[in-house]
Amino acid sequence: EHPTDALYTTMLTGMGARRQPLMWAITTAGYNIEGPCYDKRREVIEMLNGSVPNNELFGVIYTVDEGDDWTDPKVLEKANPNIGVSVYRDFLLSQQ
After folding, report:
1. Radius of gyration of the chain from Cα atoms?
2. Domain check: are 77 and 38 in the same one?
3. Which domain holds residue 40?
């Protein structure tokens, strides 16, 4: 996990010469609530709930819904859309 957003910012500003720049990032929220991944998560949540409109941002957050029991095996697919492909159900169940 990167401690700062320096790498992300460098790549973003490096796209200034392009007519139609596009940044693609895949991440988890991370453990550091002061870190860049958690900050990007906050930005996407604000855009998705409409509190901060952003027509230049597309974001998807896979998570369990409030009130879901995260230990319920049926809930695993909500937060793990690639289950059975890059992460296996048995592994996730063993981590609960």
Report:
1. 16
2. no
3. 1-61
Cβ atoms within 10 Å, residue 50: 7
Pick the closest to residue 63 from 24, 28, 26, 25 (CA basis).
28
Q: Domain check: are 8 and 48 in the same one?
A: yes
Q: What is the pLDDT of residues 56-83, one digit of tens each?
A: 999 999 999 999 998 898 898 899 989 9
Say if residue 57 is in the same domain as residue 72: no
Long-range CB contacts (within 8 A, 24+) of 30-38: 30/1, 31/1, 32/1, 32/3, 35/1, 35/2, 35/3, 35/4, 36/2, 36/4, 36/5, 36/8, 37/1, 37/2
At 1, which helix (H) or strand (E)?
none
Do residue 69 and residue 88 come from a single domain? Answer: yes
